[in-house]
Design goal:
Elements: H1 5-28, H2 36-52, H3 65-85, H4 88-92, H5 102-114, H6 116-134, H7 139-191, H8 193-207, H9 210-231, H10 254-257, E1 277-279, H11 280-284, E2 292-295, E3 302-304, H12 305-326, E4 332-338, E5 342-349, H13 358-364, H14 369-380, E6 384-389, E7 395-402, H15 403-416
Helix pairs in contact: 1-2, 1-5, 2-3, 3-5, 3-6, 5-6, 5-7, 6-7, 7-9, 8-9, 12-14
Amino acid sequence: MSVEQPLWQALTAYRVLTLLYALGLCVLSFDDYDHPVGAVVYMAVLTLWTALTFRMVASAEHCTRRFLVGDLGIAVTGILLTPLVDSHDRIAEGTPTLPSIWTMGAVLGFAIKGGWRWGASAATVVCAANVIERGAFAQDTIHMLALVWVASVGIGYVIEVARASERTLARALRIEAATRERERLARDIHDSVLQVLAMVQRRGAAIGGEAAELGRMAGEQEIALRTLVSTGLVSRPRTGDGTETTVGPDALPDALAGADGPPVPPCAPGERSDGGPCDLRALLAPHAGSRVTFSEPGAPVLLPAGVAAELAAAVGAALDNVRVHAGEDAHAWILLEDEPDAVMVTVRDDGPGIPEGRLADAEAEGRLGVALSIRGRLRDLGGTAEWISAPGQGTEVELTVPKASAKKAIRKGEAAR
């Protein structure tokens, strides 16, 4: 049940009760009106309108914007007709308008439907109509109008908070359901497929020859399957010649493709041109393999498409350096961290390390892999690239992109286009 549905039910009852109140005032003041027939005609129209539109305020789906405008028009018309049917002395004394407090129902409809901004706009219209009806800013009029305005804004704000809470709860329930399904799949797969793949990898490595290649491929598939059941991201498995096969997001089960509503597009480099958000995890997951361990948060790490592609390319360049300089047998680790104000990717290896001053010498010799492929990309994104290395202790590359700088980079690119 929607958290706002009780408010619609309360508004329905409010309109009926306030109509009865307005009818009672009309009966009591019948002999005091200058033109009682006009008051009776308006009250008949108000009664018929309330009866015919009873269903319109039963829920948000039925309460359209056109109806709200018409409802407010009925209320404002009644306010402006009051000087035509009632005497000036009675109006100066502060007697209620023809619709009386029924008018507040029209304002509350705007507040519940569209939030505090809609409520404030409708209340302002009612306030203006009341000032015109009285012909002056009387103290009692100001008090009443302030109450209408504050009440409409307050209720509109409450309904916005309630809707946000409802969306948060729905997301939490979807995440919980997806997590339970992922855990169930992980248990089943671990008890069967993963154990078989791990055994094939070990036996193939022990036998050697073609069996070793088969074992290596089984290890790649085991890593891809573990990534799938643990995070919903799938590493692209490699074929025998080292090339990557494509596994699109459509291959994922619905429960794993996105726990929070529709799945976030993986956005491989060049796939998106609208600058929309991309999950950086999906760009880095394909690097995982038997010699590369990828660790990432459980939630999507969203960056604009261009920024995500450039950062992923920098990580790929860092891994290329590991393969070239640390050797094919070196192991690498990728750690993805999503901080409140920045996204950080750390690439670490267990190779021999970089001698002091080697990076500067390589740049001076014209080898610009680090200077352009890594440090240049991060500089263009407003980020930084730092190396921590010591001979015999491996190398660690820390790539940091501030989220504010990422947004500026995207705006700069759009302006250049």
